[in-house]
Amino acid sequence: MAKKKPSVLEKAGEIFKEEKELTGELFDINAGKGLVRIKIDRIVPNPNQPRKTFYEQTISELAESIKEHGILSPIIVRPSGKKYEIVAGERRFKASRQAGLKEIPALIRKVSNGEARVISLIENIQREDLNDIDRASALRDLKVNLGSPWEAIAKRLGLTKRRVLDLVGLLDLPEEVKEEIRHKKLTEKHGRALRQLLKEADILREVFEFFQENKLTGDQSLELVKAVKSEPGFTIKEIFNKLDRKPKKEKSKQSTIEIAINDCAKLSRTIEKLGAEKITKDDKKEIKKSLQNIKAQIDNILDFIKG
After folding, report:
1. Across the chain, where does the E strand assignment appear?
2. Helix 8-19 with 150-157: angle, nearest 10 deg
3. pTM higher than 0.90, yes or no?
4. Residues 28-61: pLDDT tens digits?
5. Using one digit for the tens of pLDDT, what is the confidence trace for 156-205?
């Protein structure tokens, strides 16, 4: 049987348990009224929702799914006067309203502002459709709210510390670059490439525009920026054109003959360069001995080929 994926509440429970004590009410399914159906017009969004970007297309797709299958997972709310404020599940709420539902299944939890924010942050970080800039912002806010080191936060979320720091590092990028990543016109890899040029604003802008105009992949972008940093004095286009972008054959898939041909070509180029080197007497003896051995093997192969 497949291992059950922990819920947002369980994830939040683990973090809270490690950081500070709570009453237990937050994570008790019987707390408050438990699972109930609440009228849509009595539910209000969280004004401090960490998710900044909602895509109308995905909301519409979710609404269609809800029309056909209903809501598979309840939202989480907390009392707010005569209404209920969303703690987790705003996408489901928006899609349910769009689908024309009058009521929605929900879990009522009595939580503080800080606890509600942490739960909402964790839910957003776990969502696969969340863009990397909003996810990075949620991670940074989670650290502020919990005061934990990155390593502890990464461990609790099932991420590596490097992955967390790569994401949070995107927040250092210029706003126009973040906007492109936010709308998924550029990827996290594009962002990581551009971060290497933060101290060179003019070059960063030039490379950023080159990415856009030439529709470079994330891997191509990382390769290009590496070359840009190591080859000053050339234009971006010149450096890009010099890169070997042909797919390379894996050595394991090359035949012995192909390997021999490539190695002979390398040896030939190396021998050509020997004339320009200052060679000591001892080195001359070693080179002569190695070349004689190679010559003998080559003669044997040539005789074999002739035969």
Report:
1. 34-39, 43-44, 75-80, 83-88, 103-108
2. 150
3. no
4. 334 445 688 899 999 988 877 656 666 677 788 8
5. 777 889 999 999 999 999 999 999 998 888 999 999 999 999 988 888 99
Separation of alpha carbons 121 and 142, rounded Å: 6
* Active-site hit among 85, 90, 123, 223: 90
Distance between CA atoms of residues 178 and 191, nearest Å = 8
Q: What is the DSSP string of 255-303?
A: -HHHHHHHHHHHHHHHHHHHTTS---HHHHHHHHHHHHHHHHHHHHHHH
Nearest to 129 by CA among 168, 85, 91, 155: 91
Would you call 68 a catalytic residue per the annotation? no
Measured between alpha carbons, how far is residue 208 from residues 99, 181, 197, 211 in Å? Answer: 40, 12, 10, 5
- For the chain, report the end-to-end CA distance as a whole number of angstroms: 64
3-class secondary structure, 75: strand
Q: CB burial class (10 A; 0-12, 13-18, 19+) of residue 75?
A: buried
